[in-house]
Amino acid sequence: MPAHPVIRLKPREGRRALAGGPWIFSNEIAMDAAVKALAPGSLVNAQTSDSRPLGTGYFNPKSLIAVRLLDTVPDAEIGDAFFASHLARALGRRSALFGEQHYRLVHAEGDGLPGLTIDRFGDTCVVQVTTAGMEVLTEAMLEALDEVISPANVVLRNDTPSRALEGLEQYVRTARGEPASRLSVAENGIHYCANPGAGQKTGWYFDQRDNRAFIAKLAKGRTLLDCYCHTGGFAILAAKAGAAEVTGIDSSVLALALAEDAANANGIAGNCRFVKAEAFEELERLGRAGQSFDIVIADPPPFVKARKDLEAGARAYRKLARLAASVTAANGYLLLASCSHNMPRDRFEMECAIGIARAGRRAALIRDAGAGPDHPVHPMLPETAYLKTLVYALD
Ligand code: SAH
Predict the structure, then answer these.
(1) Nearest alpha carbon, ligand 1 atom 6
(2) Which end of the chain is more exposed for a tag (fewer CB within 10 A), N or C?
(3) Looking at residue 72, what DSSP letter applies?
(4) CA nearest ligand 1 atom 16, residue
């Protein structure tokens, strides 16, 4: 097997990689013409300037994160066997925690597979590839997936906008079995509805699983407003747990229709209402009308998509906290979440605290959480713990 080309770091660069970090940035690399000419996604051996090996990775001269390391040894063979061992380890970690086979099976660097996300819904896997390196390795990965869990259906949802950063086109392809359409998602003991072929991301947000269960514990006999409800992740479980009345609002009719189907399937449609609305406008309207809810959930799409949007996004989170707190009843509960990678946790907590105070409310933080254990974080990349989910008890 031929040796991989060598990527050499500049003098004094690579401290994070030497300490076990999986990323090497383009400005850390000695970029000569030969390196620049490597095809995006090429396997490489990374080395420090004094030839200390950093391991095998894949390289993309077009990307800011130029090398993502896959193995600690140089010239590692990255093929079916590599993927099979990583997938088997990822599967073992999920099987230890979840009874149902519905979870995020692979969470990129957290599972040692940068650029790869796989959500598993029983015998259907929804795969997202976000880097040129993983794109090149897709066939080997699919072979290994067959070997390890043999899913009946596999869909490649390679239509995420972030692929453009790696020079990749966007497409959706059925790689195995039937095109993914409607399916049932098992979580927290109930069944939801999702459409992984057309829905947002992979069709389901597994990351809030534990936070949904926490809210459900509070729900009995209470009213609940679920802003940005998507397909009803928080709303349906709360209704099933005995909430008196649940209102979900979202801007997507596709998501709302799936939420309604899940309400019917769980026999709680009588307690649920799903409404198409813009969340800020609806919260302002409800506030003006003097309406309030015992529990308010606000789990919006990312407001800080790029680092340059931090200040504008921070103001939006603050405003959302104020509006949501304004419609939370006395002695009620408020959940505020941010899934923006670029919004640091301490900053988000500060914006939420200010927003709640500006609504004239006093609050105690009773849960400070994030994604569940099927979204593992590489310990050298704490910033990839993107989800912040805060629950407050209000006076
Ligand atoms: N809480 C959900 C996930 C929310 S994802 C769950 O538990 O599954 C964010 C949702 O916000 C998406 O469903 C999207 O359709 C919706 N959305 C985006 N912009 C919106 C807006 N301005 N007003 C209302 N909903 C919006």
Answers:
(1) 233
(2) N
(3) S
(4) 228
Query: Could you give the CA distance from residue 333 to residue 323 in angstroms, rounded to a whole number?
Result: 14
Taking only the tens place, the pLDDT of each residue in 296-307 is 999 999 999 999
CA atoms lying within 13 Å on the CB side of residue 53: 13
Report the C-alpha gap between 16 and 89 in whole angstroms.
Answer: 25
Structural tokens at position 22 = 């999986």
What are the pLDDT digits (tens) for 225-252? 999 999 999 999 999 999 999 999 999 9
* 330 CA to centre of ligand 1 in angstroms: 26
Instruction: Give the mean model confidence (pLDDT) for residues 338-361.
Output: 97
CB-ligand 1 contact for 192 (6 Å cutoff): no
Q: Where in the sequence numbering do the catalytic residues fall?
A: 339
- Tens digit of each residue's pLDDT (9 = 90 or more) over 288-297: 999 999 999 9
Q: Are residues 163 and 36 in the same domain?
A: no
Looking at the CA of residue 208, tell me the nearest atom of ligand 1.
Answer: 7
- How far, in Å, is the centroid of ligand 1 from the Cα of 371? 17
Task: Judge whether 281 and 227 are in contact, CB under 8 Å.
Answer: no
- H-run or E-run covering 352: helix 345-358
Q: Are 141 and 222 in a shared domain?
A: no
Structural domains counted in the chain: 3
The answer to whether residues 245 and 364 belong to one domain is yes
Do 60 and 87 lie in one domain? The reply is: no
Expressed as residue numbers, the domain containing 102 is 80-176
Q: Is residue 39 domain-resident?
A: yes
Same domain as 126, residue 108? yes
Residues 45 and 75: beta-carbon distance below 8 Å: yes
Domain identity same for 98 and 213 = no
Give dist(CA 315, CA 304) in Å, integer.
10
> Which of 71, 99, 116 is the C-terminal boundary of a domain?
71
DSSP state of 252: -
The strand pair at 171-176 and 183-187 is best described as: unpaired
CA distances from 182 to 40, 197, 270, 347 (A): 35, 8, 23, 38
For residue 301 and ligand 1, the question of a CB distance below 6 A is answered with: yes
What is the reported pTM?
0.96
